[in-house]
Amino acid sequence: MASEDVKTGESAVSQFVNLAEEAKLAREGVKAPSYEVLSICKSLIAGGVAGGVSRTAVAPLERMKILLQVQNPHNIKYNGTIQGLKYIWRAEGIRGLFKGNGTNCARIVPNSAVKFFSYEQASKGILLLYRRQTGNDDAQLTPLLRLGAGACAGIIAMSATYPMDMVRGRLTVQTENSPFQYRGITHALSTVLREEGPRALYKGWLPSVIGVVPYVGLNFAVYESLKDWLIKKKPFGLVEDSELSVTTRLACGAAAGTVGQTIAYPLDVIRRRMQMVGWSHASSIVTGDGRSKAPLEYTGMVDAFRKTVRYEGFRALYKGLVPNSVKVVPSIAIAFVTYEQIKVLLGVEIRISD
């Protein structure tokens, strides 16, 4: 009996010592493995929720942008954002405005989760290397280093979820009059694999990666740098106690989205068009009524650029820019602010970079 009491006492002491050791590690800035795993999960959840909320909020504009990007120039059906949205509303109802959003969210939730998490990890790694190189332990990330971290995050996230983006593009452009219908994500994936092969799931990947470098890189660089500048300079009374309001952070996100999408937009147009290549019903799908005068045939990214500019002019590279601009500004702003607010609710440090 006494020995059992001794064992019980030793167990209690052992648990107390372990707790004390964990507390000491926490004070010294060293996190226990379980804490690290929990932190990673919370960060991924925050990124996923941010992506889903932001994309659903602008889903009608996203569909309108894609339809404008790929429609046949010989059979113009959508003359602008407002006219196009009204046409979809009359022809397909409210469901038509959100067509493809389920697939989009299935793609953007993991994409956003991986992107935000990858940016955090890339920022930490780049900052560590930068401090070692300069010998300054107090050095902070420069806008250029943030651009590099954002580019890494964008490439990783884009590559990991690209097949979903390719399928989402095809689901988005089909209409009630299309001669062929994908019934959903799984059916679209299996059909593409069966009829076009695994490589078809990555059509348009190269311009996507090239475009994501300035797009995602600039989004993070502009957003973080603008926040730092506002906190340091405190212009127009926008900062109180080194904290930015939700409205101010939304404005920072809007500025970041505007800069990034304007520079990378032509590559997004080419990506969408390349995703249609090899789809036997692509031309009739994008015109929406089964008629076609200009089949979509591109041998690669350069060929797609050349033919688009030759036959439709340089302005064709910016088709759908208006709905995309209206969409990107609130989308990026909502994504950044939602991410930070979710992390606050989950009890995680809200700074994206140190």
- Strand content is under 5%
Major sheet characteristics:
2 strands, antiparallel
Please give the alpha-carbon distance between the first and last residues.
55 Å
Query: How many beta strands in the DSSP annotation?
Result: 2
From N to C, what is the helix and strand string? HHHHHHHHEEHHHH
How would you describe this structure in keywords?
354 residues; mainly alpha; two-stranded antiparallel sheet; 2 strands; 1% strand
Describe the structure.
The protein is mostly helical and 354 residues long. Helix content is 73%, strand content 1%. The chain has helices at residues 2-27, 33-57, 59-70, 81-97, 101-134, 143-173, 185-196, 205-233, 246-276, 282-287, 301-312, 321-345, and strands at 239-240, 243-244. The chain has a two-stranded antiparallel ribbon with strand order 1-2. The longest helix has 34 residues, at 101-134.
Helix and strand arrangement:
Elements (H helix, E strand, L loop, with lengths): L1 H26 L5 H25 L1 H12 L10 H17 L3 H34 L8 H31 L11 H12 L8 H29 L5 E2 L2 E2 L1 H31 L5 H6 L13 H12 L8 H25 L9
Antiparallel strand pairs: 1-2
